[in-house]
Amino acid sequence: xxxxxxxxxxxxxxxxxxxxxxxxxxxxxxxxxxxxxxxxxxxxxxxxxxxxxxxxxxxxxxxxxxxxxxxxxxxxxxxxxxxxxxxxxxxxxxxxxxxxxxxxxxxxxxxxxxxxxxxxxxxxxxxxxxxxxxxxxxxxxxxxxxxxxxxxxxxxxxxxxxxxxxxxxxxxxxxxxxxxxxxxxxxxxxxxxxxxxxxxxxxxxxxxxxxxxxxxxxxxxxxxxxxxxxxxxxxxxxxxxxxxxxxxxxxxxxxxxxxxxxxxxxxxxxxxxxxxxxxxxxxxxxxxxxxxxxxxxxxxxxxxxxxxxxxxxxxxxxxxxxxxxxxxxxxxxxxxxxxxxxxxxxxxxxxxxxxxxxxxxxxxxxxxxxxxxxxxxxxxxxxxxxxxxxxxxxxxxxxxxxxxxxxxxxxxxxxxxxxxxxxxxxxxxxxxxxxxxxxxxxxxxxxxxxxxxxxxxxxxxxxxxxxxxxxxxxxxxxxxxxxxxxxxxxxxxxxxxxxxxxxxxxxxxxxxxxxxxxxxxxxxxxxxxxxxxxxxxxxxxxxxxxxxxxxxxxxxxxxxxxxxxxxxxxxxxxxxxxxxxxxxxxxxxxxxxxxxxxxxxxxxxxxxxxxxxxxxxxxxxxxxxxxxxxxxxxxxxxxxxxxxxxxxxxxxxxxxxxxxxxxxxxxxxxxxxxxxxxxxxxxxxxxxxxxxxxxxxxxxxxxxxxxxxxxxxxxx
Length: 716
Description:
Layout: H1 3-17, E1 21-26, H2 30-40, E2 45-48, E3 61-63, E4 76-81, H3 89-96, E5 99-109, H4 125-136, E6 139-144, E7 149-155, H5 181-184, H6 190-204, E8 209-214, H7 220-233, E9 239-243, H8 251-263, E10 270-273, E11 279-283, E12 288-292, E13 302-305, H9 308-311, H10 313-321, E14 325-331, E15 333-334, E16 337-338, H11 340-349, E17 354-359, H12 370-378, E18 395-399, H13 401-406, H14 408-418, H15 428-435, E19 439-446, E20 449-459, H16 471-478, E21 487-495, H17 504-519, E22 523-528, H18 534-539, E23 543-551, E24 558-565, H19 568-587, H20 598-606, E25 617-618, H21 619-629, H22 639-652, H23 661-671, H24 676-683, H25 688-705, H26 707-711, E26 714-715
Helix pairs in contact: 6-7, 7-8, 16-19, 20-23, 21-22, 23-24, 23-25, 24-25
């Protein structure tokens, strides 16, 4: 059989059908076949390969396996993956989303009998899963060049594909849209054009924020760029800040902006690029739109956030509330995985009045494209849980990796629940579930369907260092070598969205604890950056032992770790670690933990063990403190003394209520050093004077009650 002839015939059928397809070539000469496929695409391709095996010049773009984002936002006739060894799901999903209608996604690998796309010491389950998934693809060709045979092929008439049908000339704008036809002509779908009209109204109107959402490949970023060009043309914006994970991630916005300015005939704008060619600033006589990194961006009259799920909910909240207008884009489903949970949070955190838009039509390929459907199905990019059974009949079970690899319905149901636990899930989570020997999946199953799922990771001796993310921090905080200590970390736990707040999560957690105790583990731990779930863990008897000094790069919040001991050894370690955290929260509250929400700091501190007061007053400070307690001076005039006495009280007692507004205000002002203007907002005071009064009244009361704690700790 002539393998090359079969490949050329398959690619020709793709071009004629305008479908996108999957091509897998098994060969002993990866380089030669990558060059052939690049030639078939006329060089209009993106190549994913290691730098050591880079094939210079054969494709228009290149990305190493660890930086797939380099080709995202581009559009190619083909994407060619030539990656030896581990082939992560995110590489396949990311590369596949860059291929235009009639093009192909190619995987060039070893012949099938020698090809293992899994990690070293693989279980073989990912290989089994990927191979069966390739065979299930409705439009694919898999050939073995060494044996000269077709391994698998399919070219079904795909009835799910619709016609593109977008014609700017036939587009009927909304009455009073105000968008010039020449700018509409730069759009690539009707939903893009409608979104452009809505964003034009956003810039002209009184909206504080706008959210543009949709699956990847819908042109969200590009249409935001066109809208920015419109706003600049109308002189509706001056200075704007564009935030995204990296300069590379905002290039679609910049491309739309530059294209829009050119179409509108706006002359004299200046484009600034990095040494790598990425556009980071576009400015004109009266406007300036510049990229800034998420962790250094400052509020602006206009804040634009692209790929908000990767920027993080906390950063989006902070930047949007402190800016004039905010324009935010987020991906619901795409190569990064599901951002469904994050997209649901955004309307609740963005300033009002609020506008929400969704783009549904793909711009690079036909609606209902079989390759997109295959990628989304195989890598769980659009996983939804099954209809739940009766929760009263739910029973705990362990779901084996073998079942997950071989039963797609079970995998989809499990994954569909787990995506609710994180702001952003990735296809590589699937790889960990199938291949990691330290992962366990537990579920509450009702009538054969999961209603709650926990993803658990075993940590201890023999586990790779990068996987011991909670245990190592626990031992560090406890100052203990911890040789031989084993813990189970709950990486994710979630309940079906229709059955939440019924105690199912707590019930499943108790089962995980029982299994961990039976296995000989000393603790169950968890670490996360979704601060809204802290109360769940505290209610279930977990104790905080770590808060990261830096932000989580995904959520923009600080990671929080909690644990529950299962034996005396675990209890001793956790007691030490939690006391260490208490001191850090109190003593570093005005520095590395100043940006932690005051109510969260108070809640975490309250659930650490009481510890001996660490600070002493001088005789002069003690007299100043007495003056404050008698109302002779304000707290700020005796701040150093108030600080020492309050910290001693908060550390040594637990009689205070962590949700009382006065306590929260005292933590914000004294422990964290926040200005009273911010304290007023935190505790709901209408004026700064009201906030001062409430905080000082609370401090006087708590210090009088705890007088013995500080009055006996005075240095003569």
